[in-house]
Amino acid sequence: MSRSTDPKLRRLPLAALRRKTARIARLLEQHLGVPDRRMPLPEPLDMLVATILSQNTNDKNSHRSYTELRRRYPTWELVAGARPAAVRSAIRTGGMANQKSARIRETLAAVLRRYGKYDLSPLRRKSNDRIIGELTGLKGVGAKTAACVLLFSLGRDVFPVDVHVHRLCTRLGLAPETKNPERTYAAMKDLVPRGKGHSFHTNLIRFGRTVCRSSNPRCGVCPLYALCTFERRIEGKTAPKPLRRAPSRADHDFMLLDNV
Ligand code: SF4
């Protein structure tokens, strides 16, 4: 019987971890619904730049900086040709404007060198592994960013792992307790049920914001309490209350990458 390769999870056969993951994904859909997808999906280069802008800020400010950049420079040619100070000014609301503007310019230059134009649509014909290899070969593009492009722009069934998804997967005992989201990404590849990459990723982020917060998790209303292995979960659980509610404006703000 194949088992998890992580020492702390070794007692759990891989099949049991897969069943547990599927159960959690189902419970989250019951409580939070199946997240909508924006159609048509955004262009991959748009998504790549949006993902760069989403780092180290909240989604509202990230969305504002992306929208302002596109308003001032409707094409990527114009962004690439703009003065660095002007690009920094356009994205200032998202923070870290110096670093992000430099990364955007480097990324655009690398895309032009590799594909001959500011366009990543040739990726649509390639396999997931090939796309990840090509994107992470661009300076400053990591596995999480590449996975976001695959999921949110190319519609592939992948499961990006940012720090929030990493926190939840480790608390729930699905992934090893490390400080490394890339290790969690590798572990989760084998576990997420087919066709559930978008739903599970999106609902975990929503769940992490509303219930399993980084500090002060709301274990008393957590529908996943019985499945949780977090050592510091808060005891004295009461019966879980329904979490489902009508989508609000805040949902659209926080799901930036579905709203590029
Ligand atoms: S029981 Fe607490 S720590 Fe565990 S998943 Fe629920 S909210 Fe998070």
Number of helices: 12
Molecular shape: globular
Task: Give the mean pLDDT.
Answer: 87
The number of E-state strands comes to 0
Heteromolecules bound: iron/sulfur cluster
Which structural traits does this protein have?
single chain, 260 residues, mainly alpha, Endonuclease III, domain 1, disordered N terminus, binds iron/sulfur cluster
Give the helices and strands, then pairings:
Layout: H1 14-32, H2 44-53, H3 59-72, H4 76-81, H5 84-90, H6 97-115, H7 128-136, H8 143-153, H9 163-171, H10 181-188, H11 197-210, H12 249-254
Can you put this structure into words, describing what you see?
With 260 residues, the chain is mainly alpha-helical. The protein folds into two domains: 129 residues, Endonuclease Iii, domain 2; 110 residues, Hypothetical protein, domain 2 (Endonuclease III, domain 1), CATH 1.10.340. It is 51% helix and 0% strand. The protein is built from twelve helices and no strands. The protein starts with 13 loop residues before the first helix and ends in a 6-residue tail after the last helix. Bound molecules: iron/sulfur cluster (SF4). The site of iron/sulfur cluster (SF4) has 13 residues, from loops.
Short description:
By secondary structure, the chain is an all-alpha fold. Helices cover 51% and strands 0% of the residues. It is built from twelve helices and no strands.
